[in-house]
Amino acid sequence: MKTEMTAQEAGGRISSPASWLKTWKKIGPAYLFLLPKLLLFGLFTVLPVGWTFLLSFQEYEIFDSHWIGLRNYAEAFRNEIFTGALWNTFRYTIVTVPLSILTALIIASLVFPLGHRSQTFFRASFYLPVVTSTVIVAMVWRWIFNYRFGLLNHVVGIFGMQPVDWLGQTDLALWSLMLMNVLIPPGSGILLYLAAMGSVNPSLFEAARIDGASAFQIWRKITVPLLKPTTFYLLILSMIGAFQVFTEIVMMTGGGPGNATETVVHVIYKTGFRDFEYGMASAQSVILFIIIMFIAVFQYKMLGDEGVERHKKRRNK
Amino acid sequence: MKMWKWSKLSTALLGVALFVSACGGGDNNDPAAGKSSSTNEPGATEKAWTGEIVVWDGPRWSDDKENKYHWIENKKAEFEKLHPGVTIKIVQTPWAEMEDKLNVSIAGGAWPDLVYNVSNRMASIKNIESGIVEPIDEFYTADELADFYPNALKEYEYEGKHYGVPVSTRVHSLLLNLEIFKQKGVEPPVDGKWTYDEFLEKMKQLTGGGVHGFSTYIMPSYYEAWPFLMMDGGRPLSDDLTQYTFDSPEAISGLQKFLDLKFVHEVALPDMGMSNVGDTYQAFAAQDKRLMAVQPWNSWAIASSQKEPYAMDLMVAEYPTGDSGKSISMGDVLGWVMLKQKDEGKKQMAMEFVKFLTTTEEIFITAKNYGVFPSRISSGEQRPFEANPQMERAQQIAENAMMVPRHTNWQKIDEAIQKELQLAVNGTKTAEQALKDARSQVESLLK
């Protein structure tokens, strides 16, 4: 807080070399400490992003690239595979994000009342898939979905039904991937919800209980609304993650059958690293970036502002 | 004011970043990079070039220490001894990662000097036209080139020049588990040759009791199923590679016969075409779950199916013949490719190393130990598979195999066709619909 105020004060007083030097003495060390990180950030994030933006207006050749204006963007939207991938990615996001967040909320709500030891056990258990490589998780799920030896078809067989080609049927493949995403415990979400639940004032629950509220009413009327900032944060993060789904596609279906499970990042990867069309891949990346940014801002306007402000007001009271 | 400060800071950071990146290390194709020192200037031609040559190679056969790079490491040591001052840097690169790593390195302008080319991805027309791949003709006499099988050499030819040195050929053939044939009392095809009708009849006899006659998969860049599509005379593209021809009546008929194995005659596994490579091989070869008698495979699987843990009584057979009366197979040619060089001396030395790796003897050794078919006639004449009749039969198939069409956009064309084939084999589209639907996508790529 003190540093912040000093910086603000300094902002209005840079008028003479003496005062500039004085300010620099105060805030300089902070910037110096930040410098290594800023340099790395500049080199490995800002520069590539800026370069991607520039590339998106070029036809990339290894020895001779040239400027083509918006042609890459126009071609990207004319490409049926890319627009189909956008639609698949959108469907994937719409289905998996709310369900994952809901799952995290329900699991966290069930774990929260448990004792310290049990809570620690469940925290670790549910977080395990997060620290496990996505490749390994995808391989396990490939076995679960396997037509001949898979767990799912074994279960289906118990009920006397015919085995299902979960990843091989055009209408079913994307839904199977969504099912996989939803059934993998959202470890990060559970941990965040548990941390947020721990910071809620217990007197609120106590007051509600005295007023005769049932456990479900307490959860719905007190817990869930107070977790709104966490939900909003998770919504943004999960949405970005879902829009960037890639490893699961590569490992499970390769975008097939046909283009049934083709997603935007998989198309970008192929355009860039298989076809060498870096200009087009950059344009596709910028389109994805703009879509994600637009949806994030939209979510912030619809949920974030209102939720965060209300939460702040309550805290200030 | 605050904004001004931030913009000043950002500009300074960007400047620093640009400076740092400008100071970054040079690439391998830069003659002045690293410790290389060219002596190829005028007046110094007598003195041999010295410096480092970067070679990317993948794992081959193991030695007794399970080292799958021992062959190239030994050749490196021998070459360095013969050429003092020359260092060969071997970059061990798993085959599965080779293409992506190379593409990234090319995009970054830091490619290796030599690379082992698989499925002709590196010596593609696109790369040749981009100027990344060096022609090799100035280093070979016509007599030397005449020692390579014409179909192997042709895979590296473009507009009268050769852009790589072929080492070996791989081919697809049908692998038969004779143990299942014996159990079911079915006679294998005589000399590994059969018509589609004979093939179908045997598949029917083999199917039953939890076992199916046949299965395979369909994925981009995999051509195990394609000989069925071509057996009646269908071809993906016209000879001059300007027209899509895979929706001809012959191609539709070939695909229909392939689909009938699954949907009409039910002699193929219900998930044929949709399973992945690993699962399909396991279903054919794993001791505890051998679910089918016949599968098409690339030639690497022959050696694999002859030894533990997959050892079986194996026979190699040709793809069945269709209305065209010819058995079709598809193959690819592997070999060494030299990437763009700025230094003449280095270029000569790198090519010297390629020649050192591709003598008759070395290609024979590679063929015998690695289970691939030699690209040199003189190596083939030494009969690397004399003790392995199944490999010999596959080698005969390889000599007449069709190669993947060499079109600049082939990978995209291949993907467009394969994805339609997936939709046919999972029952979403008919044979005719699938092959006709691929036309619009492929035609736009042929322009």
Automatic annotation (TrEMBL), chain B:
<dbReference type="GO" id="GO:0015768">
    <property type="term" value="P:maltose transport"/>
</dbReference>
<dbReference type="Pfam" id="PF13416">
    <property type="entry name" value="SBP_bac_8"/>
</dbReference>
<dbReference type="GO" id="GO:0042956">
    <property type="term" value="P:maltodextrin transmembrane transport"/>
</dbReference>
<dbReference type="GO" id="GO:0055052">
    <property type="term" value="C:ATP-binding cassette (ABC) transporter complex, substrate-binding subunit-containing"/>
</dbReference>
<comment type="similarity">
    <text>Belongs to the bacterial solute-binding protein 1 family.</text>
</comment>
<keyword id="KW-0732">Signal</keyword>
<feature type="signal peptide">
    <location>
        <begin position="1"/>
        <end position="22"/>
    </location>
</feature>
<dbReference type="GO" id="GO:1901982">
    <property type="term" value="F:maltose binding"/>
</dbReference>
<dbReference type="InterPro" id="IPR006059">
    <property type="entry name" value="SBP"/>
</dbReference>
<protein>
    <submittedName>
        <fullName>ABC transporter substrate-binding protein</fullName>
    </submittedName>
</protein>
<keyword id="KW-0813">Transport</keyword>
